[in-house]
Amino acid sequence: MKKIIGIFYRTPYTKYNIFVLIYCLLFTNKSFHIYAISTCSTWGVCISFHSSLLLDKTSFYRCAIKKNKSYIRFQIENIIYHIIPCLITINYRPDNINIYHALISILFQLSWTSVITNDTFNLSDIYVYQPLIYWKIMNCIFCITNLSIPLIYQYH
């Protein structure tokens, strides 16, 4: 199990999501289920990541310091990894998106979190220190966002 975790250790979920999103855009079409799942996940990642600012206004600054990046570079990467993928899913909407896609996205993210943290759900080692309750709140925000996306895409 250690070797498996070693492969995934310290790789943020966002990077896996970006990989899947790019794969879908290059090699599949908007009707594939994986694209709808990735769309839900893209929004969940973006909203939950930015919700950290509501819980701790220093989280982005501390993240930049931990990653040894200037705050401006951190924000540029934030736009690339979080904002642009959402804009892509707005411009290239999935042909069919429903609650099952959201549930699968949630399952993927919670599974990743469980494996990477040895079931503690505390992601402080990967990002920056936050109290465990903050990580749980951000996971709830991820889930709520995922469940909302199919409704938003179907009615707008």
Helix content: over 70%
Number of strands: 0
* Main sheet: strands, sense, barrel: none
The multimeric state of the shown protein is single chain
Helix and strand composition category: mainly alpha
- What is the 3D form? globular
How confident overall, as mean pLDDT? 92
Radius of gyration: 15 Å
Beta content comes to under 5%
Span of the ends, CA to CA: 44 Å
Q: Helical element count?
A: 7
Topology order in helix (H) and strand (E) letters: HHHHHHH
Ranges with pLDDT <50 over ≥5 residues?
Answer: none
Summarize the structure.
This protein is mostly helical.
Would you kindly provide a written description of the structure presented here, covering whatever features stand out?
- This protein has one domain.
- The mean pLDDT is 92.
- It contains seven helices and no strands.
- With 156 residues, the chain is mainly α.
Describe this protein with a few key phrases:
156 residues; mainly alpha
Helix-strand blueprint:
Layout: H1 2-8, H2 13-27, H3 33-55, H4 59-66, H5 71-91, H6 99-116, H7 132-155
